[in-house]
Amino acid sequence: MATNLHNLSEYDPKSVPSAKGMRFGIVVSEWNHHITGPLLEGAQTTLLKHGVSEEDILVMTVPGSFELVFGAAQMAKSGKVDAVIAIGCVIRGDTPHFDYICEGATQGLAELNTTGDVPVIYGLLTCNNLQQAQDRAGGILGNKGDECAVTAIKMVDYKRRIKG
């Protein structure tokens, strides 16, 4: 569903399993910090709301969105987390740089999910302009960080249930 038809922060809390005892890593891009900062805050707040203790949230920064792939891979390999949330923001500019960064980061994060054993949640905003990013980082469309945290909890629960 298109984000403009659904608020990213609205969900049924009863549909989210308890996250008590789950450990989460968040890799966040320093680039566009005025956007990634609120996304990080949303993810952390939502994790805490669902029972994650502060000690079970590991936050690390990387310089930009392209580096999210390496950061997420290293965090997943560390054995310290049950899921990784990758948070970044790329805003279209005047050159094809946007396309290369978005494609590379997206493919890299997708590959981590198909080859790894730790769910990696896609929290990369790919926006045409600053307003679109602000709308998704706590603005009129909610906070993508909230949605990523809920997804991470559900994926850890899924992995636990499928492995029995």
UniProtKB/TrEMBL annotation:
<keyword id="KW-0686">Riboflavin biosynthesis</keyword>
<dbReference type="InterPro" id="IPR034964">
    <property type="entry name" value="LS"/>
</dbReference>
<feature type="binding site">
    <location>
        <begin position="94"/>
        <end position="95"/>
    </location>
    <ligand>
        <name>(2S)-2-hydroxy-3-oxobutyl phosphate</name>
    </ligand>
</feature>
<protein>
    <recommendedName>
        <fullName>6,7-dimethyl-8-ribityllumazine synthase</fullName>
        <ecNumber>2.5.1.78</ecNumber>
    </recommendedName>
</protein>
<keyword id="KW-0808">Transferase</keyword>
<comment type="function">
    <text>Catalyzes the formation of 6,7-dimethyl-8-ribityllumazine by condensation of 5-amino-6-(D-ribitylamino)uracil with 3,4-dihydroxy-2-butanone 4-phosphate. This is the penultimate step in the biosynthesis of riboflavin.</text>
</comment>
<feature type="binding site">
    <location>
        <position position="122"/>
    </location>
    <ligand>
        <name>5-amino-6-(D-ribitylamino)uracil</name>
    </ligand>
</feature>
<dbReference type="Pfam" id="PF00885">
    <property type="entry name" value="DMRL_synthase"/>
</dbReference>
<feature type="binding site">
    <location>
        <begin position="89"/>
        <end position="91"/>
    </location>
    <ligand>
        <name>5-amino-6-(D-ribitylamino)uracil</name>
    </ligand>
</feature>
<comment type="similarity">
    <text>Belongs to the DMRL synthase family.</text>
</comment>
<dbReference type="InterPro" id="IPR036467">
    <property type="entry name" value="LS/RS_sf"/>
</dbReference>
<dbReference type="GO" id="GO:0009349">
    <property type="term" value="C:riboflavin synthase complex"/>
</dbReference>
<dbReference type="GO" id="GO:0000906">
    <property type="term" value="F:6,7-dimethyl-8-ribityllumazine synthase activity"/>
</dbReference>
<feature type="binding site">
    <location>
        <position position="136"/>
    </location>
    <ligand>
        <name>(2S)-2-hydroxy-3-oxobutyl phosphate</name>
    </ligand>
</feature>
<dbReference type="GO" id="GO:0005829">
    <property type="term" value="C:cytosol"/>
</dbReference>
<comment type="pathway">
    <text>Cofactor biosynthesis; riboflavin biosynthesis; riboflavin from 2-hydroxy-3-oxobutyl phosphate and 5-amino-6-(D-ribitylamino)uracil: step 1/2.</text>
</comment>
<feature type="binding site">
    <location>
        <position position="31"/>
    </location>
    <ligand>
        <name>5-amino-6-(D-ribitylamino)uracil</name>
    </ligand>
</feature>
<dbReference type="GO" id="GO:0009231">
    <property type="term" value="P:riboflavin biosynthetic process"/>
</dbReference>
<feature type="active site" description="Proton donor">
    <location>
        <position position="97"/>
    </location>
</feature>
<dbReference type="InterPro" id="IPR002180">
    <property type="entry name" value="LS/RS"/>
</dbReference>
<feature type="binding site">
    <location>
        <begin position="65"/>
        <end position="67"/>
    </location>
    <ligand>
        <name>5-amino-6-(D-ribitylamino)uracil</name>
    </ligand>
</feature>
